[in-house]
Known about the structure:
Number of domains: 1
CATH superfamily: Hypothetical protein
Structural class: alpha+beta
Shape: globular
Order of helices and strands: HHEEEEH
Helix content: 25-40%
Number of strands: 4
CATH architecture: 2-Layer Sandwich
Radius of gyration: 12 Å
Strand content: 25-35%
Number of helices: 3
Distance between the termini: 9 Å
CATH class: Alpha Beta
Strand order of the largest sheet: 1-2-3-4
CATH topology: Metal Transport, Frataxin, Chain A
Amino acid sequence: MNRRKILQKILDGSKNIKFSDMVNLIEGFGFKLSRTEGSHHIFSRPDIPELVNIQSVKGQVKPYQIRQFLKLVEKYDLSLEGRE
């Protein structure tokens, strides 16, 4: 799915976001997978001290983890980059 459509779906209030779509969106904001610990996928970005942590539960991302990511995007005024 297109990254902008995924973001719009989240902003419209959907709590049913596929794990793979969320990974795509996180990478669209310049984060890279730095490590995996059990079910936790940890993403980092060199210019941001905070990490992004998401889990796949039955193929979906936990809603609170989506909210945490959106707060990080807002806090650092991040924008989508690269391919759609």
